[in-house]
From TrEMBL:
InterPro entries: Hpr_kin/Pase_C, P-loop_NTPase. Keywords: Kinase, Transferase. One of its GO terms (biological process) is regulation of carbohydrate metabolic process. Residues 5-77 form the HPr kinase/phosphorylase C-terminal domain. This is Serine kinase of HPr protein (Carbohydrate metabolism regulator). The keyword Transferase applies. GO terms for molecular function: ATP binding; phosphorelay sensor kinase activity.
Length: 141
């Protein structure tokens, strides 16, 4: 059974990256920057989550499918990915540690996902998120 989750999500190479953070921190801007680098939108500020075979899947929310809020421009239409297995959670956090030894753990509906906190005010935030996916993201089979 799926449920709504307040988070953004993009798909990179068939692996989902959930994006969390407080209002106004830059979740949609990160998604937009990642899309510019080749990711595909799953959802902006709302996705549907479902656990299947011990894996978390994110899918577009039916009420906002294909829409991404671009600050100062409004809600714009983007191509959207279908359901994607989630490999990493990114928490945008101005108190994020400078160095980490390992990803933190985030539990969603009984499934543990790796989570990395990233400082949101970086001009290379999308690159950092992609590197976190490469280094700490789950391998999807």
């Amino acid at each position: 059974m799926s449920r709504a989750l307040q988070a953004g999500c993009v798909s990179i190479g068939g692996r989902g990256v959930l994006i969390f953070g407080p209002s106004g921190v830059g979740k949609s801007s990160l998604a937009l920057a990642m899309i510019d680098r080749g990711a595909m939108l799953v959802g902006d500020d709302g996705v549907m989550i479902e656990v299947r075979a011990g894996q978390v899947f994110a899918a577009p929310h039916p009420n906002i499918i294909g829409k991404l809020e671009v600050r100062n421009l409004g809600l714009l239409e983007f191509p959207v990915s279908a359901s994607v297995p989630v490999a990493l959670a990114v928490q945008l956090d101005r108190e994020a540690p400078r160095f980490i030894e390992a990803a933190e753990a985030l539990e969603i509906d009984g499934v543990v996902l790796p989570q990395v906190r990233l400082w949101p005010d970086s001009p290379v935030l999308a690159l950092r998120a992609e590197l976190a996916l490469s280094r700490y993201g789950l391998t999807i089979s």
